[in-house]
Design brief:
The chain has 85 residues and is mainly alpha-helical. The protein has 2 domains: 1-35; 37-85. It has 2 helices and no strands. It has helices spanning 2-33, 40-77. The chain is elongated, with a radius of gyration of 27 Å. The termini are far apart.
Length: 85
């Protein structure tokens, strides 16, 4: 095993800069051949999941922004916490 690892390191060093680029591009093409296109149903499902997650995160960030804004106003400006608006 050590011999095969050493020989692969020597082969990599002999390849040179442009050889390494070509090898990288070959590996990219090999990986892209493994990509599976989702079906229409899966694509719609994944899209709805992402949109739902984004909506939940928007609500969470809005609430946190409001709370921390009120807290900063109370601490630094002396504005009352109540009424909220």
């Amino acid at each position: 095993m050590a011999e095969s690892q050493a020989s692969s390191e020597r082969a990599r060093k002999k390849r040179g800069f442009f050889g390494a680029i070509i090898q990288f591009l070959r590996e990219v093409v090999d990986q892209l051949k493994k990509v599976v296109t989702p079906s229409r149903k899966e694509l719609i499902n994944y899209t709805l999941v992402v949109l739902g997650f984004v909506a939940v995160m928007m609500v969470l960030v809005t609430i946190l922004d409001f709370v921390f804004g009120k807290l900063a106003g109370f601490i630094f400006a002396g504005s009352p916490l109540w009424p909220l608006w």
